[in-house]
Write a structure and sequence with these properties.
The chain is mainly alpha-helical. The protein has helices spanning 3-12, 18-26, 30-40, 43-55, 59-71, 75-87, 91-98, 108-120, 124-131, 138-147, 154-170, 183-193, 197-209, 217-228, 232-239, 244-257, 261-273, 280-290, 294-301, 314-323, 327-333, 339-360, 364-372, 382-392, 396-404, 409-421, 425-431, 435-462.
Length: 463
């Protein structure tokens, strides 16, 4: 078992991608995944097969699938293997597998997974002790908060978090300490769940006011905390003051939940009229769509639809309308765009969005006609797009035949999806290149792109 290949699969969604694994399972192809895990060392197939076997109560078989992967010492497989063993009630075996010391694995991630196994084995205090030295690791800290939820250990957790939080508060700008920002919302979260909501709001509110935070998601957590507990006044102060861009969304949803959607709409329209920086048109459009006011939503964003750079809401509007099943209304927005906008965006994304919408709207043949009217070199991934449209039109065998002629992992993945739809599971997995072939394809594409970029840069310099 090659750990480097396993990690590559996880980080690049290589092998048989998760959506195909799910599709195979939904249609009864479990045994195909079991074979692919064994013969191709495909991680997503193994994980999917184990999950399905556990659901059926076949823990022994699930462990048989995962054991070779877990034996490699690769942390995601160790974590999944320990989960199966715990569900199988093989507690000591699970803890032995998960313990980092036996594998020379001393990372915070490994200790976090071990602590999670301890909690599930009922050894909560031991788990908390294991994590104590690693609280400056964001994943460990988040894990501590999550795994102790409902375990009656909130006071102990707060005692552990307090010195880390105070260290950050003393000097958030000092080198190396700013990474501790994540302890502030963690502390507030534990205070909130232990019933000390007022203290959570006071502490985190002071941190926000004093700008003691890292990324803005600290502020987001605070605004959501206020919204959860109906603190509309404090939320409005943020939304109309120094944190408008971050607080606007939670404030609008809080008002909407209170039946004050008209007030939320007026607030957003005032921001837009005052030309405040931020994508408030987007928030307004989402509000109007939730109310079923689709034409009003389009009107709120349409003045951006021909913008060439940041701030154009056309694509997000197309997606919002598609999510509501309003494909024809979305298609109409792709028409009549300015020549300047089309020159910058038509080939890049507008056409592909239009053809996708047409395929979803039952207008696949019309889309194919549009594609075939264009020069072949003008349409990126032309054959793959036509194949998808053929399938949408019910001409699945034509789509399969077209995809079989195409090289590359993307075409193979689309082909596999069509074969899965026909329950040809083994054939579907077989057409997907193995990990070695996929890695080589990625390497070659990266090399070609790098050389092209260097050549373009050189040509520009010569000019």
């Amino acid at each position: 078992m090659n750990v480097d290949d396993l990690q590559w699969q996880l980080s690049h969604f290589g092998g048989v991608v998760p959506r195909l694994v799910d599709a195979i399972l939904e249609r009864g192809g479990l045994e195909t995944l079991v074979r692919a895990a064994r013969e191709r060392e495909d991680w997503f197939c193994a994980a999917g097969a184990a999950r399905e076997l556990c659901t059926a109560g076949e823990f022994g078989r699930a462990w048989t699938v995962l054991e070779p992967f877990a034996a490699s010492g690769w942390q995601p497989a160790v974590r999944a293997g320990a989960d199966v063993l715990l569900r199988w009630n093989r507690v000591e075996q699970a803890l032995e597998l998960a313990h980092p010391g036996g594998r020379g694995q001393e990372s915070g991630d490994a200790w976090r997974d071990y602590a999670e196994a301890l909690v599930r084995a009922g050894r909560v205090d031991e788990a908390i002790g294991v994590l104590a030295p690693y609280l400056r690791d964001r994943r460990v800290l988040r894990g501590l908060v999550e795994m102790t939820d409902g375990q009656g250990r909130d006071e102990r957790v707060l005692e552990m978090l307090a010195p880390v939080a105070e260290e950050f508060r003393r000097d958030p700008e000092r080198c190396g300490v700013r990474d501790l920002w994540h302890v502030l919302p963690a502390q507030a979260q534990v205070l909130e769940r232990s019933g000390r909501v007022g203290e959570a709001i006071r502490l985190l509110g002071t941190d926000v006011a004093e700008r003691r935070y890292g990324p803005q998601n600290n502020v987001e957590f605070y605004t959501e905390l206020l919204a959860r507990h109906g603190r509309i006044e404090e939320l409005r102060d943020l939304a109309t003051g120094t944190q408008t861009s971050t607080a606007a969304g939670p404030y609008v949803k809080a008002l909407e939940n209170l039946g004050r959607a008209g007030e939320a709409e007026a607030y957003l329209r005032d921001l837009i009229a005052a030309k405040h920086s931020g994508w408030y048109e987007s928030v307004l459009m989402e509000l109007l769509i939730r109310q079923g006011r689709f034409d009003d939503a389009i009107a709120a964003g349409e003045h951006t639809f021909d913008d060439l750079y940041d701030g154009n809401l056309l694509q997000s509007t197309l997606i919002l309308l598609a999510e509501q099943g309003l494909h024809d209304k979305a298609i109409a927005l792709t028409e009549g765009r300015s020549p300047e906008f089309l020159a910058e965006n038509e080939a890049y994304w507008l056409r592909s969005n239009r053809w996708w919408l047409m395929g979803e709207a039952g207008r696949a043949r019309e889309a194919i006609t549009e594609i075939e009217a264009l020069p072949a070199d003008d349409v990126e991934d032309r054959e793959v797009t036509v194949a998808w449209l053929l399938a949408q039109d019910g001409r699945v065998e034509e789509a399969i035949a077209r995809l079989r002629r195409l090289p590359g992992t993307r075409a193979a993945t689309d082909l596999a999806e069509l074969l899965i739809g026909q329950k040809r599971f083994a054939e579907a997995v077989a057409v997907i290149p193995d990990v070695a072939a996929q890695r080589e394809e990625k390497r070659r594409l990266w090399t070609d792109w790098t050389e092209h970029k260097e050549m373009a840069s050189s040509d520009g310099g010569d000019g």
